[in-house]
Write a structure and sequence with these properties.
Shape: globular
Distance between the termini: 80 Å
Radius of gyration: 25 Å
Largest sheet: 6 strands, parallel
Low-confidence stretches: none
Strand content: 15-25%
Helix content: 40-55%
Structural class: alpha/beta
Length: about 425
């Protein structure tokens, strides 16, 4: 990791720059994939699956026999862990449910707001170098709680043409049975346009590499919604003298091992903290199976030494996907954080807990989008529909207000829609 001690604020944007590819270049690669799937459907999916995943697939949909086989392959202890995580995620997301809102804004005028599940949603589950079966929980649990009528899942196949058994076990555990062996931008294209096998959806969810992210953004141009622009994973850790260097190093490495385009940022109260953490990183890195990924991600990463006031400014400017406050009084800092996907408080709260089983959602905004996006929640899977109902007494009071405003905007038909009703009431 590169180390900077009290860097000038003007240099922060360059220091904190994410290791992302040029979006225009990525779109140029993704757009032909999207267009071909739109035109050729399953035939295009077969071509791209052969080309990108190195396997020939005849039937994309996962069969009941494949679900049964997957269940046998998942160890009992892992099944228990998955079901425990499912219970915690359900508890946290169920608590987010909002009852119908009814407000009488003035006598005889009632306004309502009701949550309605998005009819069709597509869940993208990465399955390349790390099969993220935990993401199935994070997306399918709230989708089911929200009442989405159709939940479709896509995940890339391995060289044997199969999806990782833990992904299939988890999907079935949460009630998702429409699962397809398709990955990458071509899966997003299938969600966007529909094919002979895969139905078109209304909204696409799920993290992925920069090609998946670009495809999702292109999908919005064809009338679909997406959860957020979620790209390579990242973490920022703020550590003071009370921090355990081993814990901090493990947290940084837990994100660095995601992939070579991940980024980790350490903001420390002193150079000594940075030195101790770096020593731990070097030690722990040697024992990691994904050390090569982590080492390359660390090359994109920085450690910055700042006083507390400036540190908080920098953390808010960075807007991390994950922010760990490894400090003695974490709430003193947390209450000043306005830009972060999810915040982890204190020395005993690893980011891994949120990734898997604490109950919060791990599908979070990256690349600075935490400044304007929230992470996935129950709200992500519903629409808020408003209603209004006016009685004769209510219209007599509200009608003249509307008439006056419509006339001032020179919208005579708007005014007339009220005037005719008021006249009908006066003639009764």
């Amino acid at each position: 990791m590169r180390v900077f001690v009290n860097p000038d604020k003007a240099t922060w944007p360059d220091l904190l720059k994410r290791p992302t590819m040029d979006l225009e270049e990525i779109e140029q690669r993704v757009r032909p994939v999207m267009e071909k799937v739109k035109l050729e459907g399953d035939a295009a999916l077969k071509q791209f699956t052969q080309e990108f995943d190195g396997v020939a697939i005849d039937d994309f949909q996962v069969s009941e026999a494949e679900f049964t086989e997957a269940e046998k392959l998942v160890e009992a202890d892992l099944k228990t862990a998955i079901l425990t995580a499912k219970s915690n995620i359900e508890a946290f997301h169920k608590a987010q449910k909002q009852e119908e809102l009814v407000v009488e804004t003035m006598p005889g005028v009632k306004c309502y707001r009701r949550s309605v599940g998005i009819e069709k949603v597509g869940l993208y589950i990465p399955g390349g170098t790390a099969p993220l079966f935990s993401t199935v929980l994070m997306l399918a649990v709230p989708a089911k709680l929200a009442g989405c009528q159709e939940v479709v899942l896509c995940s890339p196949p391995n060289k044997e043409g199969k999806i990782h058994p833990a992904i299939l076990y988890t999907a079935k555990a949460v009630g998702v049975t429409k699962v397809f062996k398709v990955g990458g931008a071509q899966a997003v294209a299938a969600f966007t346009f529909g094919t002979e096998s895969i139905p078109q959806v209304n909204k696409i969810f799920g993290p992925g590499n920069q090609y998946v992210t670009a495809a999702k953004q292109l999908a919005t141009r064809f009338g679909l919604a997406i959860d957020m622009p979620a790209g390579p994973s990242e973490v920022a850790v703020y550590a003071d003298a009370s921090a355990n260097p081993g814990f901090v190093a493990a947290d940084l490495l837990s994100q660095a091992e995601h992939g070579v385009d991940s980024q980790v940022v350490l903001v420390a109260s002193s150079e000594e903290v940075v030195k101790n953490v770096q020593t731990e990183i070097e030690s722990q890195l040697k024992a990691l199976p994904r050390a090569e990924f982590a080492a390359k991600a660390l090359a994109n990463s920085v450690a910055v030494v700042l006083g507390e006031i400036e540190a908080i400014v920098l953390l808010n400017e960075y807007g991390a996907e994950h922010l760990i406050l490894s400090v003695d009084e974490p709430w003193n800092i947390a209450n000043q954080i306005i830009n972060a996907g999810s915040v982890f408080l204190g020395h005993l709260t690893p980011e891994s807990a949120g990734d898997y089983a604490s109950g919060t959602n791990h599908t979070l905004p990256t690349n600075g989008y935490a400044k304007m996006y929230s992470g996935v929640s129950l709200d992500s899977f519903v629409k808020k529909i408003t209603y209004q109902e006016i009685t004769p007494e209510g219209l007599k009071v509200l009608g003249p207000v509307v008439e006056k405003m419509a006339a001032a905007e020179q919208l005579e038909a708007h005014k007339n829609a009220v005037t005719l009703r008021l006249k009908s009431l006066n003639n009764v």
